[in-house]
Amino acid sequence: MAEDTVARVLRQWQQVRPDLGTAPMAVIGRLNRCSALLQQAADAPLRREGLTRPEFDILGTLRREDRELTPSRLARETFASGAAVTKRLRQLELRGLVARRPDARDRRVAHLSLTAEGLELIDRILPEQLTYEESLLSGLTPAHRDQLADSLGDLLLLLEGHLGGTLD
Predict the structure, then answer these.
(1) Do residues 106 and 85 lie in contact, with contact meaning Cβ atoms separated by under 8 Å?
(2) Exposed, middle or buried by CB within 10 Å (0-12, 13-18, 19+), for 113?
(3) Is 2 helix (H, G, I), strand (E, B) or coil?
């Protein structure tokens, strides 16, 4: 039977340190490995458009919210730091995908929206990205995917409660 990378690591730890309870590594190690592999694979359509996953997340957030957002709201919605969002917004503005409008009452506040080019790009690439992600999961049955999504949702709620939401 085939052995995934984490199973091999667990077996090795069991041989050299049988006294350790490595069960958490079975979950977290696999999540980390899956995340790394998905980051490499799932971002292929984005790379063809010259986008990073975090930039795509900003464009997607502006599209799904369907209204102007402030940088701080974008940071909360994308689970990123303010500094990271500022850097990404600068790149998206330079590409003409996001527009910034200063607040009439407080010039320190900016309101961000998609430009026509940004709207066209996200509406064009999102279906392609979803199709690509679907192909990555095609080896799992719909029932297995639902079960996995539910379990990951439970874990996410647990971790967000313990660790909070900001990762960058």
Answers:
(1) no
(2) middle
(3) coil
In angstroms, the CA 34 to CA 19 distance is 27
Residue 125's CB is within 10 A of a number of other CB atoms, namely 19
Q: For 59, which DSSP code? A: H
**Cβ neighbours of residue 29 under 8 Å, at least 6 residues apart?**
6, 9, 10
What secondary structure letter does DSSP report for 52?
A: -
pTM of the model: 0.81
**In this predicted model, what pLDDT tens digit does every residue of 30-89 receive, in sequence order?**
999 998 888 877 678 888 899 999 999 999 999 999 999 999 999 999 988 999 999 999
Report yes or no: 20 and 13 within 8 Å, Cβ to Cβ. yes
**Which residue in this structure is represented by tokens 């998905």?**
38
Residue with tokens 């006294």: 19
